[in-house]
């Protein structure tokens, strides 16, 4: 029985080159992720979407980005949503952020764990943006709080990398949490 899901993290326009909070080379993951979503290996495909009110608390830390209903909050136009079964929005409460697709920083659910459980999913592959923030947080909570067999496919991820150590440290933190970090995406 195929019980593996693909979790696609935050392909919002604002994280793409030219966006308000651009992640270097972010658009390079889109064809890889489109292929993964279409390859038939996943029983369920979920995309998370950063989705903030205009006065969101994260704008004290980050530039204004992914404002709900704005073009920057929409997915990149080349991301093929045809194979996506569910979209989970996160960061929509004014006073709390949610790097993870699973739970916000107060521990309140975004519904992702419940969606996966309802579909009988026990294994997940996590891809998308950004390796050192929302991919990391989502993968760690998948492996720990949601107790899922979790892999991260690095060729289908890109990091912010505010310092050169950020992505390597994120990879180490994920591994320490029990995430299998894969150097290739053809799995
Ligand atoms: Zn955000």
Question: Can you characterise this structure?
Answer:
This protein is an alpha/beta fold and 187 residues long. It has a single domain (4-182), classed as Rossmann fold (3-Layer(aba) Sandwich), CATH 3.40.50. The chain contains 4 helices and 6 strands, in the order βαββαβαβαβ. Strands 3-2-1-4-5-6 form a 6-stranded parallel beta sheet. The structure holds zinc ion (ZN). Residues 50, 52, 58, 65-66, 91 line the site of zinc ion.
State the strand order across the main sheet: 3-2-1-4-5-6
For the largest beta-sheet, the strand count, sense and barrel status come to: 6 strands, parallel
Number of strands: 6
Instruction: Please provide the ordered H/E string of secondary-structure elements.
Output: EHEEHEHEHE
Give the CATH superfamily. Answer: Isochorismatase-like
Measure the end-to-end span: 17 Å
Question: Hey, roughly how much beta strand do the residues contain?
Answer: 15-25%
Q: Return the domain count.
A: 1
Tally of separate helices: 4
Under CATH at level 1, the class stands as: Alpha Beta
What would the average pLDDT be, to the nearest integer? 97
**Would you tell me the structural class of the helices and strands?**
alpha/beta
Shape: globular
CA gyration radius, whole angstroms: 15 Å
Would you give the CATH topology?
A: Rossmann fold
């Amino acid at each position: 029985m195929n019980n593996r899901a693909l979790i696609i993290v935050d392909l919002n326009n604002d994280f793409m080159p030219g966006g308000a909070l651009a992640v270097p080379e972010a658009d390079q993951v889109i064809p890889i992720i489109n292929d993964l979503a279409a390859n038939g290996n996943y029983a369920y495909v979920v995309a998370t979407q950063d989705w903030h009110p205009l006065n969101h608390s994260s704008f004290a830390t980050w530039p204004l980005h992914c404002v709900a209903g704005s073009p920057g909050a929409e997915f990149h136009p080349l991301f093929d949503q045809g194979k996506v079964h569910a979209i989970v929005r996160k960061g929509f409460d004014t006073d709390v952020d949610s790097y993870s697709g699973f739970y916000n920083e107060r521990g309140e659910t975004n519904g992702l764990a419940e969606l996966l459980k309802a579909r009988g999913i026990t294994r997940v592959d996590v891809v998308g943006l950004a390796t050192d923030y929302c991919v990391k947080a989502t993968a760690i909570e998948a492996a720990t709080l949601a107790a899922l067999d979790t892999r991260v496919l690095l060729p289908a991820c890109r990091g912010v990398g505010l310092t050169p150590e950020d992505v390597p440290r994120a990879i180490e933190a994920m591994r320490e949490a029990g995430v299998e970090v894969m150097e290739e995406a053809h799995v």
